């Protein structure tokens, strides 16, 4: 392997990853901020399609985060020799920056539910109930994502060793991921698995896609640079086709959900899952490509670019805390509000979740660095300062 590629893969921070994370967290916040609108705004049919569009079309956040997490892991670790020290270091970092924050926020949200719920509706054994929810990612609705990530971390050393040991099978990992995921979808249809979306097999195709793209990324970069002129026209047509497929799948997904919510038109479960799978897998790849091209084509020190990069770097902490802002904000819902006031209220919830969470995580990392990593995950602010805005990629290879 080219030494330059090895060096790049080991020591580089890809600025495009931060931008895609920023897009993903905006999608998550928009979906969560409009979750109540999918019921409340049914009384306003002229506006309902807009809220349905936001709530479904932007539902790429979790799959894109999983794709990026896998991408970064394999990009950083694939060219390192497997050793006991490496594995111990890997799990130590995940314990500090992922599992402990998960425990902290699971406790916070569980206590929040207890103090706001009718005492007669509480389970008889709170400790047992909390432990069960902790072990299934069910302490609050959004924490399933962290629970899924922990399952992936348990699989990571085995998958990494297998791909290092048998690299010739690497092209098959994406089909394998799709096969495993859809076998799980079929098994769920048959057995009706409880909390199926909280298990890693529901997202294994994104994990495998990220693994393949992370491992191949340096080579794809080099190949693309060397052959950019020769394949320019072909790449443009291919990109246009992929973007069209992405848009068609996304709008189709929006449409089937609109039919379900307004007209109660129920389609087979696999229709919703297939459209979501196609749309979100393409989202990860195309957003990564677009972010890379954007960084190459504009001035690096643009204010909005540095802020988007910061938003992406702080996205894990924002993901953990934003429901607290939404929960508090929803207590202020105006009674007998007009349609226009409801539009403003939903927009205000999104802006509060974004701005309040961003500011809280940023201030915690800035002024409480000793403990902030145990609450909001790894403090990425020093790394942002140390690595100027740049991209080490010419393209994602599409």
From TrEMBL:
Subcellular location: Cell membrane
Transmembrane segments: 20-44, 50-75, 95-115, 143-162, 169-187, 199-217, 237-258, 270-290, 311-332, 344-364
Alphabetically ordered keywords of this record: Acyltransferase, Cell membrane, Membrane, Transferase, Transmembrane, Transmembrane helix
Cellular-component GO terms for this entry: plasma membrane
Keyword Transferase attached: yes
InterPro entries: Acyl_transf_3_dom (IPR002656)
Signal peptide from the UniProt entry: none
GO molecular function: O-acetyltransferase activity
Residue ranges constituting the Acyltransferase domain according to the UniProt record: 16-361
Record flagged with keyword Transmembrane: yes
Topology with respect to the bilayer: Multi-pass membrane protein
Gene Ontology biological process: enterobacterial common antigen biosynthetic process
Assigned protein family: Belongs to the acyltransferase 3 family.
The protein's name in its UniProt record: Acyltransferase
């Amino acid at each position: 392997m080219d030494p330059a590629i090895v060096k790049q893969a080991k020591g580089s921070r890809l600025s495009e990853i931060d931008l895609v994370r920023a897009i993903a967290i905006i999608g998550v916040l928009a979906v969560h901020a409009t979750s109540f609108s999918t019921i409340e705004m049914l009384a306003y049919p002229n506006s309902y399609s807009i809220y349905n569009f936001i709530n479904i079309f932007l539902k790429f956040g979790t799959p894109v985060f999983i794709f990026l997490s896998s991408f970064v892991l394999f990009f950083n670790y694939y060219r390192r020799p497997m050793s006991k020290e490496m594995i111990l270091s890997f799990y130590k970092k995940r314990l500090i920056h992922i599992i402990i924050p998960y425990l902290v926020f699971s406790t916070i949200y569980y206590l929040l539910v207890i103090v706001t719920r009718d005492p007669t509706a509480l389970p008889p054994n709170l400790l047992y109930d909390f432990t069960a929810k902790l072990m299934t990612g069910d302490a609050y609705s959004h924490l399933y994502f962290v629970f899924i990530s922990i399952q992936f971390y348990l699989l990571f050393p085995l998958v990494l060793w297998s791909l290092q040991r048998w690299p010739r099978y690497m092209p098959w990992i994406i089909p394998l991921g799709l096969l495993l995921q859809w076998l799980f979808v079929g098994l769920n249809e048959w057995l009706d698995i409880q909390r199926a979306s909280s298990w890693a097999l529901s997202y294994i195709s994104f994990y495998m896609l990220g693994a393949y793209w992370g491992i191949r990324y340096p080579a794809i970069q080099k190949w693309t640079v060397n052959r950019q002129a020769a394949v320019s026209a072909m790449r443009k047509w291919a990109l246009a086709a992929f973007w069209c497929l992405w848009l068609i799948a996304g709008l189709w997904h929006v449409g089937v959900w609109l039919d379900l919510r307004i007209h109660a038109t129920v389609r087979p479960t696999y229709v919703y899952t297939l459209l979501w799978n196609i749309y979100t897998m393409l989202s990860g790849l195309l957003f990564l490509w677009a972010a890379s091209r954007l960084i190459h084509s504009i001035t690096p020190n643009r204010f909005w670019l540095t802020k988007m990069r910061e938003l992406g770097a702080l996205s894990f902490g924002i993901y953990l805390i934003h429901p607290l802002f939404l929960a508090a904000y929803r207590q202020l819902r105006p009674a007998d509000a007009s349609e226009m006031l409801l539009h403003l209220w939903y927009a205000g919830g999104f802006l509060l979740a974004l701005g309040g969470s961003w500011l809280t995580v940023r201030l915690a990392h800035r002024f409480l660095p000793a403990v902030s990593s145990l609450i909001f995950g790894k403090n990425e602010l020093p790394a942002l300062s140390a690595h100027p805005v740049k991209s080490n990629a010419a393209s994602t290879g599409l």
